[in-house]
């Protein structure tokens, strides 16, 4: 059973997705720190760098945004030129253009922006200039894929692009058309604002956490949503789109004396999930280290000794680790390159079993995650799309003395 637990406060809103009482996804938002990803801006090109095939765009944030040439070329691959032009042919300093934040600002880097605009709705994603239709790969029934694609082709205009989301499976044509109409109107509002505004300025901000919870997390298999205040419950009920075939989850208000996240064990699970050393149910453990370039996960047998032989012991730990790692990626919002050092296995069948388990486990992730495979050194490589910083940077405070390394350089003693 899946359940959404949402804790709403004046200083922060937090939401957790539970599967059989286990936290598998987490998100949070402060009122004054709304996420930038998905927001649309009217930007002004500050400078163009032909050597990097990129431009820097002022969108009104502290740091200029980065616009790569691939994000200027048409979204439809078949409409892109055979030979990539110089970016100087596409934009010039001082030019204004509408851009959408693809990746949040991070550290010393500004946001990454694109002109491949996309507006997500409840059932579909609307791309005003993409000119193609796609259906979520997680919809496996071929008949349903064909039905959804035919409906989208019928509803869209020639220049428009539509992606049918996983939750669109089984939805009637009326619900899809209603969603598309709302998104078209939203895009018209953006264009009108751009004509009457001066760059740099915000044209459209993506939904807040309550709206994103309903849009991105609510599925037919979500039994209920538990919130800690009546206003949040009423807002969620009002946001539920009428006329859809999906059974609406039960929305109820938590009335116990124990805080909501504590009552459902969310606080304790998050505390364990954000540790450097994460224990596995059987007694093995993971060590998670994050750097600017990548995340490294080391798998260890720990207290687990097994019952049959070494290979079976190692395989059991590695399979358990694969499921836990996939869950940690979602909870901690880890993006970019991930390298996993599983315990060495002798048999090819064991390595295949671990690869399969990892692939199956990341398939439940909403964020695109790709299991690349085993490297020559026996490490498993994954990539996960990164749109914003992982939560560890908010939950874990770096030691000012060792900078998170766990070591300090001793002071050199000088003889007089």
From TrEMBL:
Transferase is among the record's keywords: no
Protein name (database record): Ribonuclease E/G
UniProt xrefs under CDD domains: S1_RNase_E (cd04453)
Keyword vocabulary terms for this entry: Hydrolase, Magnesium, Metal-binding, RNA-binding
Top-level taxon in the UniProt lineage: Bacteria
Hydrolase as UniProt keyword: yes
Needed co-factor(s): Mg(2+)
Residue intervals of the S1 motif domain: 36-116
UniProt cross-references to InterPro entries, sorted A to Z: NA-bd_OB-fold (IPR012340), RNA-bd_AU-1/RNase_E/G (IPR019307), RNase_E/G (IPR004659), S1_domain (IPR003029)
């Amino acid at each position: 059973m899946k359940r959404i637990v949402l804790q709403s406060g004046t200083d922060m809103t937090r939401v957790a997705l539970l599967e059989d009482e286990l936290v598998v996804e987490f998100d949070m938002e402060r009122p004054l720190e709304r996420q930038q990803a998905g927001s649309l801006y009217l930007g002004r090109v500050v400078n163009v760098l032909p050597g990097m095939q990129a431009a820097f765009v002022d969108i009104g944030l502290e740091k200029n945004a980065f616009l790569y040439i691939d994000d200027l070329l048409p979204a439809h691959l078949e409409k892109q030129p055979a030979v990539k032009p110089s970016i100087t042919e596409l934009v010039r300093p001082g030019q204004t253009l509408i851009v959408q934040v693809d990746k949040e600002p991070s550290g010393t880097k500004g946001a990454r922006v694109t002109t491949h605009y996309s507006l997500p709705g409840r059932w579909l994603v609307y791309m005003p200039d993409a000119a193609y239709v796609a259906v979520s790969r997680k919809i496996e029934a071929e008949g349903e894929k064909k039905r959804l694609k035919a409906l989208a082709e019928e509803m869209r205009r020639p220049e428009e692009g539509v992606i049918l989301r996983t939750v669109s499976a089984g939805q009637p044509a009326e619900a899809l058309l209603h969603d598309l109409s709302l998104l078209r109107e939203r895009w018209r509002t953006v264009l009108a604002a751009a004509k009457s505004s001066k760059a740099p300025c915000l044209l459209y901000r993506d939904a807040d956490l309550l709206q994103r919870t309903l849009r991105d997390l609510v599925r037919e298999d979500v039994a209920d949503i538990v919130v800690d205040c009546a206003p949040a419950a009423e807002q969620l009920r009002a946001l539920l789109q009428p006329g859809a075939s999906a059974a609406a989850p039960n929305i109820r208000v938590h009335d116990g004396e124990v805080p909501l996240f504590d009552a459902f064990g969310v606080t304790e699970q998050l505390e364990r999930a954000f540790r450097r050393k994460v224990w596995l149910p059987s007694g093995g453990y993971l060590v998670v280290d994050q750097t600017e370039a990548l995340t490294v996960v080391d798998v260890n047998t720990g207290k687990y000794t097994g019952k049959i032989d070494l290979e079976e012991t190692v395989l059991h730990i590695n399979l358990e680790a694969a499921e836990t790692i996939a869950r940690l990626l979602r909870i901690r919002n880890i993006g970019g390159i991930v390298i996993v050092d599983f315990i060495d296995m002798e048999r090819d069948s064991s390595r295949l079993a671990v690869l399969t388990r990892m692939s199956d486990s990341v398939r439940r992730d909403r964020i695109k995650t790709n299991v690349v495979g085993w490297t020559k050194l026996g490490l498993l490589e994954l990539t996960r799309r990164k749109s914003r910083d992982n939560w560890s940077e908010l939950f874990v405070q770096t030691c000012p003395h060792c900078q998170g390394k766990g070591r300090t350089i001793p002071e050199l003693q000088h003889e007089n």
